[in-house]
Q: What sequence folds into this?
């Protein structure tokens, strides 16, 4: 791809590094920004810069937040004894959209995947185990995607907390095997939360 401007080429190269964006799509987006009022591009640049500089992770659940402890964790109406374990913020948003879950979350920040070099130490598993050890949790719900990596992560956490006197469950298989949580429709996902099953039973599926 030949560019008439080095500035244009640099912008396209940066945008094309985003997931699912190739060089042609990046060029289309950059040219679109050039056609828009200058202040719109400034707003976008400022929003991205603020995102990188000011974003935080909740010290309790590790969800992305604007403050030290996120709004979900500080909500007194939520059941702090019930924790739903998810991969990232997209899964939190998907489950919250169902309006069927009133507990708290624990965001792992990924799934165990030896092929990608992601081990338990790369995730927030230790802080989850610590919560369980402290004795304030009555139930853990596994809500990771039904993939090999998701099942491996579930099983690893299960083996580390099964000795504690808590209920361990998994969302029902209303979400098809191999599906990502974030893409499940709200009704199916909501029913999967309500009809969750003991985790030991999910190992037999």
A:
């Amino acid at each position: 791809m030949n560019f008439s401007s080095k500035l244009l080429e640099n912008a396209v190269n940066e945008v094309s590094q985003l997931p699912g964006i190739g060089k042609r799509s990046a060029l289309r987006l950059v040219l679109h920004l050039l056609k828009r009022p200058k202040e719109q591009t400034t707003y976008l640049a400022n929003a991205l810069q603020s995102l990188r500089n000011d974003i935080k992770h909740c010290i309790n659940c590790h969800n992305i937040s604007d403050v030290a402890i996120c709004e979900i964790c500080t909500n007194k109406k939520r059941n702090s004894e019930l924790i739903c374990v998810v991969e990232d913020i997209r899964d939190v948003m998907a489950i919250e959209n169902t309006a069927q879950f009133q507990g708290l979350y624990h965001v792992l920040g990924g799934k165990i995947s030896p092929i990608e070099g992601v081990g338990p130490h790369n995730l927030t598993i230790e802080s989850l185990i610590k919560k369980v050890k402290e004795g304030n949790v009555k139930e853990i719900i596994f809500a990771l995607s039904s993939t090999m990596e998701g099942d491996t992560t579930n099983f690893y956490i299960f083996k580390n907390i099964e000795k504690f006197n808590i209920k361990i469950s998994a969302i029902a298989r209303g979400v098809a095997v191999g599906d990502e949580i974030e893409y499940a429709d709200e009704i199916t996902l909501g029913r999967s939360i309500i009809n969750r099953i003991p985790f030991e039973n999910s190992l037999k599926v």
User: Anything to note?
Assistant: The chain is about 45% helix and 15% strand. The chain has a mean pLDDT of 89. The CA atoms of residues 54 and 66 lie 7 Å apart.
